[in-house]
Design goal:
- The complex is a heterodimer of chains A (112) and B (114).
- With 112 residues, chain A is mainly beta.
- In chain A, the strands form three sheets. In chain A, strands 2, 5, 6, 10, 11 and 12 form a six-stranded mixed sheet that branches. A four-stranded antiparallel sheet of chain A has the order 3-9-8-7, with no helix packed on it. A two-stranded antiparallel ribbon of chain A has the order 1-4.
- In chain A, a hairpin with a 5-residue loop joins strand 5 and strand 6.
- Chain B is 0% helix and 49% strand.
- Chain B contains no helices and eleven strands.
- In chain B, strands 2, 4, 5, 6, 9, 10 and 11 form a seven-stranded mixed sheet that branches. In chain B, strands 1-3-8-7 form a four-stranded antiparallel sheet, with no helix packed on it.
- The model of chain B has no long low-confidence stretch (mean pLDDT 92).
- Classes of the chains: A mainly beta (112), B mainly beta (114).
């Protein structure tokens, strides 16, 4: 079956530090890949997505590249802000169905 | 648009009690979903619906029931609450099931079963 594995948190960074949150997946076929963000007390929001190999999704300074050869979709940001503190979820949707499979989430804490 | 709304925000139940978690969306989305989020875990799909009158099981449906009488509403029913159902429940909706389709999430309902 499909699965998504994320690095465990929490990840604690100082403001303006470089961020990487690792995500790897197992899936049949060619899934679409997503990063969702959950701010405290809120539901999940789509951050970015990529639908085929070598695509790069980007939004709000965050980027992730769909790497089929390493089955990865790592999230990066060059300079984090305190307002980026949240839980980040990597997810996939296989082309065989309409269900999202989520990773366990990674909590990011950014200190001023 | 209010997007996806959920009520209540928080509820404490005793073992064996029943309750309905409400979910509504005003985006005219065909697809709606219920997930549960356990501490430190990703979201798991409980049930989903592809349109009014049509529902189907997700990954973890046991102990839950759903109905979809209108496009807007998708309530989740717990008949006999158990401690294992302590979780945060998220409702989501999307326009279609395309592989790039974005799901929009509600703010969640935190449920504690004691």
């Amino acid at each position: 079956g499909n699965s998504v594995t994320q690095m465990e948190g929490p990840v604690t960074l100082s403001e303006e530090a470089f961020l990487t949150i690792n995500c790897t997946y197992t899936a049949t076929g060619y899934p679409s890949l997503f990063w969702y963000v959950q701010y405290p007390g809120e539901g999940l929001q789509l951050l970015l997505k990529a639908t085929k190999a070598d695509d790069k999704g980007s939004n709000k300074g965050f980027e992730a590249t769909y790497r089929k050869e390493t089955t990865s979709f790592h999230l990066e940001k060059g300079s984090v802000q305190v307002s980026d503190s949240a839980v980040y979820f990597c997810a996939l949707r296989s082309n065989a169905g309409n269900m999202l499979t989520f990773g366990g989430g990674t909590r990011l804490m950014v200190k001023p | 648009n209010a997007g996806v709304t959920q009520t209540p925000k928080f509820r404490i139940l005793k073992i064996g009690q029943s309750m309905t978690l409400q979910c509504a969306q005003d985006m005219n989305h065909n697809y709606m979903y219920w997930y549960r989020q356990d501490p430190g875990m990703g979201l798991k799909l409980i049930y989903y619906s592809v349109g009014a009158g049509i529902t189907d099981k997700g990954e973890v449906p046991n102990g839950y029931n759903v109905s979809r009488s209108t496009t807007e509403d998708f309530p989740l029913r717990l008949e006999l609450a158990a401690p294992s159902q302590t979780s945060v429940y998220f409702c989501a909706s999307s326009y279609s099931s395309g592989d790039t389709e974005t799901q929009y999430f509600g703010p969640g309902t935190r449920l504690l079963v004691l």
